[in-house]
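Holo model, magnesium ion. Inputs:
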Amino acid sequence: MASLVALKGVSKTFDNGTLALERVDLAVTKGEFVSLLGPSGCGKSTALRILAGLLTPSDGTVEFAPGKPEIGFVFQEPTLMPWGPALTNARLPLDLKGINRGEANDRAARALKRVGLDGFEKSFPRELSGGMKMRVSIARAIAAEPELLLMDEPFAALDEMTRQTLNDDLLKLWEEDALTVVFVPVASRKRSRSRRTASARPATA
Ligand code: ADP
Ligand code: MG
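Output:
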């Protein structure tokens, strides 16, 4: 099946000489949920940022399906605007696209509902728990209805139980919305002791 996005022979050397990725091949098919596993420093964030177009590879190419998919990015920290209620935060990408206020509000409210925050549209970040703030951050990433959702250790700052709940809810969202997700999970101690640990090479993860 044709991929939605693919890294082909991608290498990245930073200005200081650090080689972060070396000839990585990664094809992501529409509707897939791909996890990138590997020890800290192996280049997972670099690979995601290249997929998002936030960084350019030093070598190799990033190929998108025709019509370049809309991309949403969720970072480790929720990075919400403290002065704005949840709705304003979730609406940000729609505001940046110049979508009119009424429609943007409707779409942001729908995104908040999809992440389980119905009724919290007017709450400020300081009034929300860590898990809820992360939900707002996910709502913001999906408000523009991206085809591709990139998530870089999004639940790292949360306690284990909250993380589990958000993981489950994310999987539901992925199933319901036919999203394509590239996800970097938090490396837990349990995971790193297991026999199915990851490869240090995102290309094979
Ligand atoms: P991971 O997300 O798997 O922990 P990263 O992609 O953040 O790994 O980093 C891969 C390597 O690239 C590391 O050695 C890191 O120190 C280095 N690196 C990341 N970003 C930069 C940068 N902007 N400048 C220089 N080196 C960087
Ligand atoms: Mg990282």
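The longest strand covers residues 3-13. The pocket of adenosine-5'-diphosphate (ligand 1) is lined by residues 14, 16, 18, 20, 38, 40-46 (CB under 6 Å).
Archived with the compound record.
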